[in-house]
Design a protein that fits this description.
With 217 residues, this protein is α/β, with parallel strands linked by helices. It is built from 6 helices and 7 strands. Helix 2 links the parallel strand 2 and strand 3. Helix 3 (90-101) packs parallel to helix 4 and helix 5 packs antiparallel against helix 6. It is globular. The two termini are 18 Å apart. The relative contact order is 0.17.
Length: 217
């Protein structure tokens, strides 16, 4: 299996743009990878954007960003587009992406998978590719009732204790979601275990992503 490494030494900050339609999407989709990068890549700088975060969910989004990107330079941007109606605000969302393009030039972008069953997720993914056309983009997965799990092609092995740390942070940050039957430790650990098996991770755990385009230098 081919293995590629991100830079471990640089005089410039390594800028990561995290995009999530809802206040727990980033953390569910790539939280373990973010914790891993914090340990392995010096000088991280995060630009953290959530498109639907209002009321208690906005407080949870801020708390989660602190937990997953603590001790890192970061900018957290929270929008309050209506849940489930993001495509109907398409022009406004597109304008915001264009504004964002002038504010950040990321080395790495985490966004939703293009074939996600949730319409809000798909729009964020589509506009990510429309806007950032010369960047490394990894599309993360969010498990849900729709049964839309795909066949990812990029894996990040997660050494202990990162898998447990990810789940602990999720449960701590998103109190409003704990009553949902799917929002539990078993589901999050189970998905990481499956991706760990698929990638031959030594720890048994990994997160997985879809990468549509990659240029090797």
């Amino acid at each position: 299996m081919l293995r590629l490494n991100l830079p471990s030494k640089s005089t410039d900050p390594f800028v990561i743009l995290c995009l999530g339609a809802h206040s727990d999407d980033i953390e569910i989709g790539c939280g373990g990878t973010l914790l891993h990068l914090r340990q392995t890549v010096p000088g991280l700088k995060f630009h953290w954007v959530v498109f639907n975060a209002s009321g208690v969910r906005s407080h949870e989004a801020i708390k989660a960003a602190e937990l997953f990107a603590s001790d890192c330079d970061k900018k957290v941007v929270l929008k309050n587009y209506r849940d489930g109606f993001l495509p109907y605000h398409g022009a406004e969302v597109k304008d915001f992406f264009e504004e964002m393009k002038g504010q950040v030039s990321p080395d790495l972008i985490f966004t939703h998978w293009q074939d996600d069953a949730h319409q809000d997720h798909r729009l964020v993914s589509e506009l990510t590719w429309n806007t950032f056309r010369n960047h490394l983009i990894l599309e993360y997965e969010v498990p849900k009732y729709d049964g839309d799990m795909g066949r990812p092609n990029v894996f990040v092995p997660l050494e202990s204790p990162i898998p447990d740390q990810k789940v602990n942070c999720l449960l701590e940050a998103f109190e409003s979601q704990r009553a949902k039957p799917w929002f539990d430790r078993e589901l999050f650990m189970g998905l990481m275990r499956i991706r760990g098996m698929e990638s031959n991770s030594l720890s048994g755990y990994a997160e997985a992503f879809h990468c549509r385009k990659l240029v090797l230098k």
